[in-house]
Each structure stands twice: as structure tokens, then as C-alpha cells.
Amino acid sequence: MNPSLAEHSPAPDDSGRWRVKLARKWAYLITTTAYLPLPHAELEDRLLELVDVLATVLMAEPSGQGWSDQRAAEIGSRLVAMHCTGPDSLRRTLDVLGRDLLAQPELRRLPGLPERVVTVLGAIAAGYSEALRVWVFEQQESVNGAFVELLRDTNRSLAASEARFDLLCRLSPDGVAVTDREGRVLHCNSALCRIVDVPMDEVIGHRLTDFFVPADVPGLEEIYEKLRTGPAATFRRRRCAVRRDGEATEVFVSGALVREEDPEKYVTILEDETELSLLQDRIAHQSLHDVETRLPNRQYFSTQLEKMLPRADPEFGVTLYHLDLDAFSVIRGGAGHHAGLQLLREAGARLADVFAGEQATLARVGADEFAVLVRNSATTPNVVTMVGRINEALTEPLYVEGKGVATSACVGVVHQPSLDTGPEELLRNSEMTLRRARALGRRQWALFDPGEHARDTEDDALAAAMPGAWESGEITVVYRPVIRLPDGRPAAVEALLRWDRPAFGVLSHERCVALAERTGLILSLGAWAMRQACEEIARFSDVPVAVSLSPSQASDPDLAATVLAALEGIGLPSERVVLTLPLSELLDERGEAAESLRVLADIGVGASVAGFDGGPADLAYLDELPVTAVHLAPRLVETLTGREDRPSVTRALETLVEVVRSSGRQIVVSGIETAGQADWWGEAGADLAMGSAFGEGEDLRTLLGDPAAR
Fold this sequence. Notes:
Alpha-Beta Plaits, Beta-Lactamase, PAS, single chain, alpha/beta, Rev_trsase/Diguanyl_cyclase, GGDEF_dom, Bifunctional diguanylate cyclase/phosphodiesterase, disordered N terminus
């Protein structure tokens, strides 16, 4: 085992299953391409080691890119060492790794996974190519040594050595020539005649240097002279042989002087590099093109960006279209993987047709993402027209095995970026613009806006820094009172997140939740905040604590376990915890939030619903759930603000409050900023209220009036 490849620990059980499956699939595919002198079980074990290394390389920090490339290149070398050198061995390897690595949940969370996978596969291909070249060279060196040894044996057994030499010459794929001191060919094989495309009878008797380009002849003659007069025993150089039709062919020329001969003779071997060059070209093409669609990949596209941006017309510039196919996973899951693959290929072909009349580069840059860079001209259609053509082309059904499938696309557009925008920055801009388009729904498009991009970039930076800020204590739990409107007394306190971020100021609870939702941190951060709130309430107050859950928290299958963990060992009765769940998650057809709510109600945890806007169907559904309170949607509270003298508005809200209260549930309103608003909602029948009119975002003991906390 290669020590550098063995430096990894066994994969955990959860992730180990997909690695074993990938190694097994890899072993099966590669054994169909070449004979491998290994038992199948041993081959699977060796490939499993390489899969573990691949996972380690993909999860390495970007700062270790050189290390990662070296480890990935060693995988290619190992494949050659295991004799995985069949015509399709590398293609099958890149195909199976490219598909499976992008699909694994363990890796999907990694930022920039497609780019990492492309880079790693390119390094594997490079390592494979280099190892194959070295292997071929070693084989030829071995043959060269055999030739020289055979010639030396002629003094001991001339007849036997000549027979063996003739056999090797006939079987060798490389050209072999024996020349005298003047360089005239005394003997050659058919492979040499094939390389120079000259019959054998026209080669014998001619100088070997006659079959090289004139520029190489002086250098070759000098080398042969040094062999005869100097200490050198052999040589190997890259030179150009010339064919009968005048075409030059690159070859490796190896030679040796047989001094035991009288007169002395030279043995020269010509290795035709054409096949190796074709293999290297094919590997390079595969590393820069997508296996499934055969379109250029992200790496190639980035290179083209570097070339095209400086050449853009200063007046018209370029436009980058970044597309994401809508519901592609649904189509692939419903119609099958083959249909999904056909749809991808057809989408690429149709996009090529859309941009056929333009100077454009099309690439597949993600699982279901495409990018098109257009060098605009005076006749280039505007962005709106082009986006319309894209979706018009994609929505035409494609029939696969009798099933008609089609899709649409969300598109992020960067139009005429500044001339100093670099390739990576341009791609980042298009990706973030595409993300904004996806947030609007399906078949949407968005144009890059520097202001919105700056806000998105700031949010991304804050979201990325959030784990460190949490660990360093910048994020804390604060509270606001939940007031009984009839008497103005606290009914509970609601736990909130607050982030005191240097250079940004204090970030509100809503901003903290939105940022944590972007990265998935909300589950662990929310669990911590819940436990923190339960501990403080148990120590300093006898009022209930309310915790509002984000959509991700509410739909988390482990919600009940998280709440029980927060209560464990604290001594706080479950009845003093009230959770507020978004109505949208309770209505979700998956039913995770509703099921968790029922489990929590069974152990005494209170529950309320946020985002209720008065729909009769929603109210009817709530009758099926153990919910004790309803938070009116913020827009209903905002609707009233400044319109207390509008009879139609007030009458509708009063009716809504009456209907909800008649169902036996309390009404909670938030966002109360003035005493007048509080009075109106109290008279309308609302039970509880929150907002700046009552104070918010304070330490618990300060909120409760503890002098020691002031």
C-alpha cells in the first residue's frame, strides 16, 4: 500500500455505505475494460481505499489545494500500477466518479462541490496520463536493454542471438534499425518502415538520418559521434521523423553503440508518439468536458471567460446567462434516470440552437445548471428576448420511451459587466443572481444588480461568520415580554437571538434567524437558544417561556427530541414552554411539523401558530391540532396601522378575532408600537401582545426588574 494514500481513517458507518457501493460499482466497471491480475475482492478493497482518499481530498480546505491535487494525482498513478490501462479504463473511472461524488449527501453540503469534483477528476486524469507515460517509457527502456543485451550475446552465440533479435524486431511496435559507423541502415524492422512510410528495400543502405527533418540531422550526428568517442552508453531524444509524403511525425529516438562488434554498430529505436499523444489529448478533452452532455465543463468555461472578456467589444460588452433547470430532480425521479439524462442532453442542444447565431460559449457548470457567455454585437437580441427564447425552447416536450418530459429554467443574467471584472467574480455574480431568481419561483429570471448583490454578499459573509461569532459569545439570548392586553401584566417572555457584531452593530432576532437558515446553522443554534432560555427561566422567573421556531426547526423530524434535551436536567416543567410554529409548515403535506406538535402536546408542551391570516380552510385545519393560541400574520397588524378610522378594515379584523376566539384559542398580535394600537387590539378582543411598546431585546433579569442585573 502506498503510505501517502493510506493516511486516512476509516469512513463512519453512515457515510461508509455509499463509499462501499461506489467502490463496488467502480470495480465492476473497470474489470470490463482490462485484465487485472487481482482477485475481485482485493480489487474492491483497493478501490475503497481510493474512494476514502477522494472523500478526504474533496473535504479538504481550499488552502490545501496543492496537497489535494497531489493526492488526487496519486489515485491516477495507482490505477496504472494496478494495470487498469484498458482503452476505456480511465473513461469509465471518470464517468462513475463524476456522477456518484456529486450525488452523495455527505459531500453535497460542501461549497463549490462541482468545481472540487472537476478539479479532482482532472488531477486523477493527469496522474493517470503521467503514470502511463512513465510505464510506457520503462517498457521501452526494458526492450532497449534487451536489444543491447542480445547484441552483446552475439559473440557467445551469434546464431541464437540473431534469431532472438530478429524475433524481437518483428514483434516490437517501435521501429528498430541497426546502422554502421557511417549511419547506413544494415537492418530494420517493418515498424520503422511504417513510421517513415518507406518500403524496407528503400530503407536498407540509406543513411538513417535521411528519414529525419533536416533541422534534426546535425544534432543526431553529433549524438552518434559522442556515443562512439565519449562515455555515454545510450541516449533518448524527441525528434521529428519525416514520412515519404513530407509530413513530420514526432518520435522518441533511443540509441546505443555495440562496441563488441567489429566494425562497431549502432542500434536505434524509434518510438511513435502518435498513439500516446492521442491518448493524452483524449484525457485532456475528458477533463475539460462533461461526460453526460459532452459540453464544456466549468473548468473549461472559466478558461474561456479569461480569453473572451478582454476581447469583448467595448461598446456592447458581454452577457452571461446562468441557468438552472426547474424541478429537474422531480423529472428524473418520476421519469427515470435515463429520461433525466436525455433531458440534460436535449437542453444543452436546444440552448446551443438558441445561441447559434451569436459568438457564444455554452457549458454545463452544475448538476442541472448551464452557463452561456455571449460576446454581444449590434445585432444581438436584448436580454428579455433571449430569456424568452430560452424558456420557449426548453418547454417543448421531449419524448423518452413514450413519456413526454419538459422543463423551464430560472436564469441569472449579468449584462455588460465592467471591463475589470474577472472570470471568477463574474461567475460569482451570476450564481448569486440566479439564486435571487430561484427565490422568486419557477421560470423566473433576474438581472444582476450591484446594490442587491452587495446586500447578498454581506448576508453571505455574515452567515459564514455566524458559527465563529456564536462560539466567541457574540450571539446571546435576550427576551421580550408577552403582555396580557386586558390588564397589561406579563403573561410570558419570548426568547430571542441577538448578535452584537463589531462593525455591523446589533442584528435583530429576525435577521439572525434568516442568516442561520441560509447555512442550516439554525438547527444547532436554535437548540442551544432553547436550552439557554429554559435554564434562565428555571433560575430567575416563574412565567412561561415562548420560543418561535423557524421553518427548518418546525419541520425537523428531531424537534421533539430537541425540546426534551433542552428540558432534561433543568427541572423546568414542560407546561412552562410554549412553542410557536409557522402555519406554512403545519400545512406542509409531509406532516413532520404537525406530527412533532402532537408528540410535544402529549408531554405537556404548549403550542401556538404563527402567520395566521384568516383563511377559513386554515382555521378548519387548526381544529385538528392541539394549538392554544394563534399569532396573527404581521401584515394584518400592518393593515390596521393608520387605518383605525376605516370601518371596513376594523370590522373585518374584529370579525376575524371573534371567529378565532370562538374556537377556544387566544389571539396574539405582535409589532405593537404604541399604546393606541394596544388599546385598539384589546378592545377588539385580542388576548396577548408583543412589540416595542412593551420593551424587547433585554436581559431576563433586567426585564424582570432585578436590581442586581442593572
